[in-house]
Amino acid sequence: MHHFVEQGRGVARFGMRAIQSIANSFPLKADLHQLTSNFSSSGHRLVDFMANPPYNRFTTVRNYVSTLSWQKQWEWGKAVYDYVIMNGTMTGFNPANYGL
Predict the structure, then answer these.
(1) Which residues pair with 26 in a beta bridge?
(2) Separation of alpha carbons 39 and 50, rounded Å
(3) Is 91 helix (H, G, I), strand (E, B) or coil?
(4) Domain interval for residue 52
(5) Alpha-carbon distance 93 to 90, whole Å?
(6) Domain count, the chain
(7) Does 45 fall in a domain?
(8) pTM to 2 decimals?
(9) Residue 18, CA distances (Å) to 34, 41, 79 in order
């Protein structure tokens, strides 16, 4: 199960009910879920956009996204989900293409 707003830091901030809600949980094949997890853990050397503001103040994509509101985190999660479903990879993902 893929969560648009991540469980780890999201539970403390938004509560377990919100994180586990139907609106935040979507099925995703294990291999694609691993790609999204690896992407979230990646930083400046692996993800080009992380070298530019406002992302460059954070060590990983996950660290940046965790600072955003519920709505913005959900939008990031949805964009990542849609991208990996359509492309089978996270290579080339650009948040600007999703209005992020």
Answers:
(1) 2
(2) 11
(3) coil
(4) 2-89
(5) 6
(6) 1
(7) yes
(8) 0.84
(9) 23, 22, 19
